[in-house]
Amino acid sequence: MDAVHLIFFALAAFSAGAIDAIAGGGGLIQLPALLVGLPNEPVATVLGTNKLSSVFGTSSAAVTYARGRRLDFKLALPMTLFAAGGSALGALLATSIPSNVFKPVILAFLIVVAIYTFKRPEFGVNESLKFSRKRALIFGCGIGLLIGLYDGAIGPGTGSFLVFALVGFLGYEFLRASAIAKVVNVGTNVAAILVFGIHGSMIVWLGLTMAVFNIAGALIGARVAIKGGSRLVRRIFLVVLLILMVRLAWDIF
Fold first, then answer.
1. Which domain holds residue 209?
2. How many domains does the chain have?
3. What is the rounded distance in angstroms from the CA atom of residue 239 to the CA atom of residue 22?
């Protein structure tokens, strides 16, 4: 692999880490970059390499949020367990159910989410929890399982879906929702890495090299998010939704 490709992958990993740490959606940058840069590799190998790189950046962002006291561990940890199980199950379902079946439904859902978020400027800016701790745990685990299924079966935008569910359904502010989403994403990534690793579907040296730049981006992104607060996270969230809608529309049409 020549220096041009390595620089290309490094920039993609850094950008993905920063965006993902703020509002999710880093896979929209890093995965296409790998697909373009590794045209002769099997898709499973590209996906495995992407997950290997991403898990380090996501973990770094989660630690940064925890140090900034923005992380609700009592919800994040059980959600992570259910999301990891859902991700593994989704990976199995992906072998028998084509992702194209779901893409039009997901696109319609994203449009509704974007319009809803855009029309409510104060949505997710301030925290207003809607349930007791016990009910929040039950609903949170259900959300983790469903979005984990999506991550294992399809993938793009998982972090953004988690953020919206935590804000819209449970009542968290965008900043805390993003922090929780990072921990849950670590679980789904680890589950996927185990599956890909067992089948030898990843380029380990490239994934670890990209991980260095993904971590750097994630650390910067998480600190920017903590400093900018929920209003900044909300703006980046809307941009990520727009990119994801364009990506899905391109795949469908």
1. 3-252
2. 1
3. 11
- CA distances in angstroms from 18 to 102, 150, 200, 207, 227, listed in the order given: 28, 23, 28, 17, 14
Contact yes or no for 241/114 (Cβ under 8 A): yes
For 189-239, the pLDDT digits (tens) are 888 788 777 776 789 999 999 999 999 999 999 999 999 999 999 999 998
Write out the two tokens for 220.
């910067």
Tokens of 253: 């049409």
Task: State pTM to two decimals.
Answer: 0.85
The type of residue at 144 is G
Q: In residues, how long is the chain?
A: 253
Q: Which two tokens stand for residue 30?
A: 């890093």
Check: CB of residue 188 under 8 Å from CB of residue 62: no
Mean pLDDT of 11-33: 88
Q: Which residues have CB under 8 Å from 111's CB, separation 6+? A: 245
C-alpha to C-alpha distances, 6 to 11, 30, 209, 221, nearest whole angstrom? 9, 13, 9, 22
Encoded tokens for 170: 């449970």
Question: How far apart are alpha carbons 9 and 28 in whole angstroms?
Answer: 13
